[in-house]
């Protein structure tokens, strides 16, 4: 599994190439108890012309776990994520709800 990210340039100028940084928190299941793992990395983005959209895949995460009948409660899943894009000397941060608490619990 990967986190699919769509980036659109709504400005009238091209956005120069940059690097997108990501942190993904995965809830994994051992026997019957969950634990959290963190996956970090970077995706290089090419120059993005005005009014164009690009799709990037962040991370390749193995999903495992086990099922009790049809319940997916004990199947690994992405619990939270954070995307950081440097732009004009500043960082644009995008996070899922509750990311900070999940990130603190992750190994």
Work out the helicity level: under 10%
Give me the side-by-side strand order of the main sheet. Answer: 3-2-5-6
Principal-axes geometry comes out as elongated
Largest sheet: 4 strands, antiparallel
Annotate the secondary structure layout.
Blueprint: E1 3-8, E2 18-29, E3 34-45, E4 53-58, E5 77-87, E6 90-95, H1 99-105
Antiparallel strand pairs: 1-4, 2-3, 2-5, 5-6
Description:
- With 107 residues, the protein is mainly beta.
- It has a single domain, classed as Immunoglobulin-like (Sandwich).
- Helices cover 7% and strands 50% of the residues.
- The chain has 1 helix and 6 strands.
- The protein has a 4-stranded antiparallel β-sheet, with helices on one face. Strands 1-4 form a two-stranded antiparallel ribbon.
- Strand 2 and strand 3 form a beta hairpin.
- The protein is elongated and about 50 Å long.
- The model has no long low-confidence stretch (mean pLDDT 86).
């Amino acid at each position: 599994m990967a986190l699919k990210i769509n980036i659109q340039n709504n400005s009238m100028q091209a956005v120069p190439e940059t690097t997108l940084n990501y942190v993904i928190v995965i809830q994994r299941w051992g026997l019957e108890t969950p634990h959290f793992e963190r996956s970090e990395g970077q995706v290089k983005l090419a120059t993005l012309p005005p009014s164009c959209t690009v799709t990037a895949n962040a991370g390749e995460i193995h999903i495992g776990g086990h099922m009790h009948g049809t319940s997916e409660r004990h199947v690994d899943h992405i619990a939270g994520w954070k995307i950081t894009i440097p732009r004009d000397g500043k960082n644009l941060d995008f996070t899922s709800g509750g990311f900070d608490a999940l990130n603190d619990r992750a190994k």
